[in-house]
Design brief:
Number of helices: 12
CATH superfamily of the largest domain: Intergrase catalytic core
CATH topology of the largest domain: hpI Integrase, Chain A
Largest sheet: 3 strands, antiparallel
Radius of gyration: 23 Å
CATH architecture of the largest domain: Orthogonal Bundle
Strand order of the largest sheet: 1-2-3
Structural class: mainly alpha
Number of domains: 2
Length: 300
Amino acid sequence: MITDSLIKFLDYLQYEKRYSSHTITSYKNDISQFAFFIAKTYSDAPMKDIGHNHIRSWMVELVGNNISAKSINRKISSLRSFYNYLLKQGVVSKNPTLKIVTPKIPKRLPEFVQEKNIEQVFDNIIDGDFEDFRNRLIIEFFYSTGIRRVELINIKDNDIDTSACSIKVLGKGNKERIIPLSQSLLRRIEKYQELRSAFFEDRQFSDNLFVTAKGAQMYPKFVYNIVKKYLSAVTTSSKRSPHILRHTFATHMMNGGADLNAVKELLGHANLAATQIYTHNSIEKLKEVYKKAHPKSENK
């Protein structure tokens, strides 16, 4: 029964909630893992008989398999949404996840690239040919706008409004937002578009802004490898993904005195809680300034 219900739930997420394919896949994997556990441990107990104790025993197994608290919380969240859907459909009479206390996630400050190292990244990339110019522009785009990797991949030429110096981005939950672009970034975009046209000449290419050397839309691993290549030259951090540049954008904005709500809107966060983590890095920077400058600091 869980299979039929899961299929309908995934259709609901796709066609009514309009979630991304990546998000839908995560829901599918999380709920399927729970269904497999129930079948294996409780001889495929009927859905109406599944209670919070069944879910707790699944959590115990996940902890025993060294699954992180963050991943466990996501899986429980997926299961909670699934049961909320089943309640609306009248398949079950209660949501057993409501009695579940999820594990606390240890606070971890987001990693970011120092300003001097970001400048070094740009210094290391020679504009050169079409591909070199494209790669530098990709790095600059991430750092200047804070957009997500999938958002960058999906940018079309007509999403850019040169007169308004802005770009339209389709974020999570198909929510549209407008991000300002600097004049220097706009000039580099226009130069890139000229190089792209010359590179492909009479050959066709995707209507996406960023394309591969074959003219196709970029894919996540392709973009990841570009960012990793250039970040590897300036940082020893194990994380050198596009998301680090998103963290870097937000951290540098906060360090520069940007309003928290403004950063929230630029990042496309649903609530302030997700953005507030960047204030911690700003506070740490203020502490360093105080220690170095104030006559009564411990360093004096």
